[in-house]
Design brief:
130 residues; alpha+beta; four-stranded antiparallel beta sheet; two-stranded antiparallel ribbon; 5 helices; 38% helix; globular
């Protein structure tokens, strides 16, 4: 619906991101209209299988912690995936892209957004996503 207008998508998600608890029902309805849910159980299992034997990895519920060169936390929900990292390009991007590359990425702190499948190898090196 909004794939050809990423700025409009970003603005909608930004409004959802910054909404407060008093708008929970309205916010959830808007999220349902603009997002497609994915199978968080399957994605959690996929990520776990990729990292379960790697040093510095831990999983607690829907949260995946990777503490190697940098610190990264991946939280998987029904309608969104949240990544907190001190890396410019979190390694989880590669895994998520292998699982489903048709995802819209928003970095609200840096006002950045892009389609995951459009991310090139050059952008990986210089991305401001944090």
């Amino acid at each position: 619906m909004y794939k050809n207008n990423p700025l409009k998508m970003y603005k909608i998600f930004e409004e959802i991101y910054y909404s407060r608890n008093y708008d929970n029902i309205k916010t959830f309805r808007v999220m349902e209209e603009v997002s497609v849910p994915f199978n968080k159980i399957m994605l959690n299992e996929y990520i776990y299988d990729e990292y379960k034997n790697k040093y510095g990895y831990k999983k607690v519920g829907n949260k995946h912690f990777l503490n190697t060169i940098g610190k990264t936390i991946l939280r998987i929900n029904n309608y969104n995936i949240k990544i907190e990292t001190d890396s410019n390009y979190p390694i989880f991007f590669d895994d998520i892209k292998n699982y489903n590359s048709n995802l819209f990425v928003c970095d609200f702190d840096n006002k950045d957004y892009f389609w995951l499948d459009k991310l090139s190898s050059l952008q990986k090196e210089y991305s401001i996503v944090k």
